[in-house]
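Final report, closing paragraph on structural work. Over the funding period we assembled a curated collection of sequence-structure pairs, and we close with a single example.
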Amino acid sequence: MRVLMFGWEFPPHIAGGLGTACYGMTRGLARNGVDVTFVMPHASGDEDKRFVNVVDASDVEAVYGDIYGGADDIMDKISFIHIDSNMVPYISPEEYRSYHDEFVKSGKKVWETKDLWSQRYTFSGKYGANLMEEVARYAVVAAQVARNLEGQFDVIHAHDWLTYFAGIAAKRVSGKPLVVHMHATEYDRSGENINTQTYAIERAGMHAADKVIAVSNLTRKIIIEKYGVPADKVVTVHNAVRFAEKQDEAPERGVEDKIVTFLGRITYQKGPDYFVEAAAKVLKRVPNVRFVMAGSGDMMNHVIRRVARLGIADRFHFTGFLRGDDVHKMFRLSDVYIMPSVSEPFGISPLEAMRSNVPVIISKQSGVAEVLDYAVKVDYWDVDAMADAIYGLITYPALSHMFAKKGLEEVTGLKWNNAAAKIKKIYQEVIDNQRR
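Its predicted structure, as stored:
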């Protein structure tokens, strides 16, 4: 079985859990006999290509024209996603219209021409101000990739809204079935105050897909209720965790204090302010504790100011964004890991912490709570319960040891190979349905 997969990031250059999930998933699929071609906007060249063929969209010469290489219906939506520049780089609107009219009169098919219309677009692959523009251009390039690989894949798999238009375009060109993966909805990121542009892309992608994979039952419920996707079209496949080939020795600790760690984006969705309030309560009872906030985000300054006002700045450490080995070192240094997310579709980081033999506290509002028994679960807003959980795990060694030991045993069973096997079955189902 061969899969054409569209993602936005891939280790070692990631901004969050999406890239980590894509890496684990492609490795798992490879071990299940699935060949994956992974397309991303901008590859750095140092990606692990042992299990996947990585295609850099910035290297693809895309053909633009009357039907936009299969992305014609998508391009009709350009007005709503606010692209501020021309689809073909470096020419004026007047030149674009003139060339377009001439091209239509010629009667040529898009893929028969190799002149000014064949151009490359260099993607940043980041989440910047021109993100919507890149999403639209990525769809055009995706159509060209699908045409270039004609006959070389059986199914298309697109991850999150950034790649949904790309998946739709590839489906239109190839006629192959499309599976979209929802790792986080706009409701998770923004609550009820959603970005209507992003919501529209998410909805279009899921309705165009043959199957939708949700990372948790929590996410599946949102997809059905908020996006109107038929229930029989949405399947839950929980994420997993990858165990390293070898476990490094724990790094040397420079302090004897207990260390409680928050690792994630410092945004409203992740609940960093609740972590700070719980920390202040713990420090009133146990002074020899240090709290680490590893990550970056739009609430960073707010959190720093709150820590200062609470008078606990000498007990707080802000590391900035961590990746790769630094993440694993941070887990190995920690006595407790906490994920107090307000809304978390899944949450891979608790699994990574448990893999490092660290007891974890998670919010009941997280998808990962569906698969874990040996994690302490609290409501994100209940800072008293959160503080009590932290206090118990750092004060009573037997309790901490039990959660760490049982948690490691539990997480050992959550392998990407098993998740990938479920995904492979979904691929086979949509392929068989198309053949009927």
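The domain at 2-240+418-435 is CATH 3.40.50.2000 (Rossmann fold). Confidence is low (pLDDT under 50) at residues 65-69, 74-97, 108-118. We thank the funder for supporting this effort.
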